[in-house]
Specification:
Layout (H helix, E strand, L loop, with lengths): L10 E12 L2 E12 L3 E5 L6 H9 L6 E6 L2 E5 L2 E2 L7 E4 L11 H5 L8 H14 L15 H13 L5 E5 L7 H18 L2 E6 L2 H7 L2 E6 L2 E6 L1 H6 L4 H6 L4 E8 L2 E4 L2 E4 L14 E6 L4 E5 L8 E9 L3 E8 L4 E7 L9 E6 L7 E3 L2
Parallel strand pairs: 3-9, 3-10, 7-8, 8-9
Antiparallel strand pairs: 1-2, 1-4, 4-5, 5-6, 10-11, 12-13, 12-15, 13-14, 15-21, 16-20, 17-18, 17-20, 18-19
Helix pairs in contact: 3-4, 4-5
The chain binds adenosine-5'-triphosphate (ATP).
Membrane topology: Peripheral membrane protein
GO molecular function: ABC-type tungstate transporter activity; ATP binding; ATP hydrolysis activity
Protein name: Molybdate/tungstate import ATP-binding protein WtpC
Length: about 375
């Protein structure tokens, strides 16, 4: 069960101006980040943005070129020097799980507990196998387990030595899609029950949004935005974040007094987030998500919102249509599967959003 709000907890992990260079290349570029005690934070970003390098610097598998990493107030890396991984209170779950095939499940889980008293070790292993629901598999070889079970063994092994911070590197990448969704819930439950502070890495926005207390969106070695999943999804600070978190279309227009003229007609400025008068007259792009829009057969009497269907994707529960508005903007609309439009059909698009919209000054 989840108690308390991690947002109010003291910080457990802090990165201060952390930079990693490989020769001329900057993999991580001056990151500042605070993760609170008991919080699950996900680094989300495209391939090559520096997520794994950041995780490796927290683990001690890579040293920052400059900047500082602190765990529970103690500097574990500062300006090119640092404490080796085994002396940090940090556990890591690797993408490929890295279990020892010649040890049983219980021996794998107890692997990091060499210096524990035998009785305590046995009790700890039993508790963890119970936590991850694998008590009956204690004496098996991990080779005879399913992917999801192996992942739970890897998680139990990393949690066994009671690390302050748990790192997860693309933890679901080696699981098939259906298992992945089940394991997201399961992994979140286990992490929350142990109350460990966790940082995971993924390029899958749905995974990041569904498992995390907060998401840090990375681009090109930097963090573009950190926040709760709902907040980064609904209030993306940049076009990059908007695009990376899900299908994003942009309506172009010019702000005038209290309205903006777009391809969908005149929108009230009240609909736009955080508007101030300094933007009067500015060209802007308004973010619309597929579920903000609805397409209907073309209404010939309407002057705005008309366009041509240029894309049609069936996803099972819904259709996603791409419509090229007569103004030139291309927008995506998501409909439940009972409505059907054909490619090339003339349609009218309406804004049905019941929330304020994010927008950006035009590039
Ligand atoms: P992916 O999702 O593909 O794993 P990532 O976001 O985790 O990507 P990193 O693996 O952190 O990205 O890599 C960031 C950048 O640093 C990349 O351009 C990569 O080529 C470079 N890089 C990472 N490790 C090294 C290394 N050991 N030597 C040289 N360059 C490296």
């Amino acid at each position: 069960t989840e108690t308390g709000d991690p947002a109010d907890a003291p910080s457990m992990l802090t990165l201060d101006g952390v930079t990693k260079r490989y020769g001329p290349e900057t993999a991580v570029d001056g990151i500042d980040l605070t993760v609170r005690d008991g919080e699950l934070l996900t680094l989300l970003g495209p391939s090559g943005c520096g997520k794994t390098t950041t995780l490796r610097m927290i683990a001690g598998l890579a040293m920052p070129t400059s900047g500082q990493v602190r765990v529970d107030g103690e500097a574990v890396a500062a300006d090119g020097d640092g404490v080796p991984p085994e002396q940090r209170d940090v556990g890591m779950v690797f993408q490929e799980f890295a279990l020892f095939p010649h040890l049983t499940v219980a021996e794998n889980v107890g692997f990091g507990l060499d210096d524990w008293d035998a009785d305590e070790r046995e009790r700890r292993v039993a508790d963890l196998l119970d936590l991850v629901g694998l008590s009956e598999f204690a004496d098996r070889s991990p080779e005879n387990l399913s992917g999801g079970q192996r992942q739970r063994v890897a998680l139990a092994r990393s949690l066994a030595p009671e690390p302050e911070v748990l790192l997860l590197d693309e933890p679901f990448a080696n699981l098939d899609i259906r298992l992945r969704e089940r394991m997201r819930e399961e992994v979140r439950r286990i992490i929350k029950e142990t109350n460990v502070t966790a940082v995971s890495v993924t390029h899958d926005q749905e995974e990041a949004l569904s498992i995390s207390d907060r998401v840090a969106v990375m681009n090109d070695g930097q963090i573009e935005q950190v926040g709760r999943p709902e907040s980064v999804f609904e209030h993306p600070k940049s076009r990059f974040v908007a695009d990376f978190l899900g299908q994003a279309s942009f309506l172009t227009g010019r702000l005038a007094e209290n309205h903006i003229d777009t391809g969908l007609g005149t929108l009230s400025a009240d609909l736009l987030q955080g508007l101030s008068s300094e933007y009067d007259g500015a060209r802007i792009d308004v973010l619309v998500r597929p579920d903000d829009l609805r397409a209907t057969p073309c209404d010939g009497d309407r002057r705005t919102g008309n366009g041509t269907l240029v894309g049609r994707q069936y996803t099972g529960p819904s259709f996603v249509y791409a419509v090229e508005l007569d103004t030139g903007d291309v927008v995506h609309c998501e409909h439940n599967h009972s409505t059907d439009h054909e490619l090339g059909e003339r349609v009218t698009v309406d804004l049905v959003a019941d929330h304020t919209l994010a927008w950006y000054p035009a590039e």
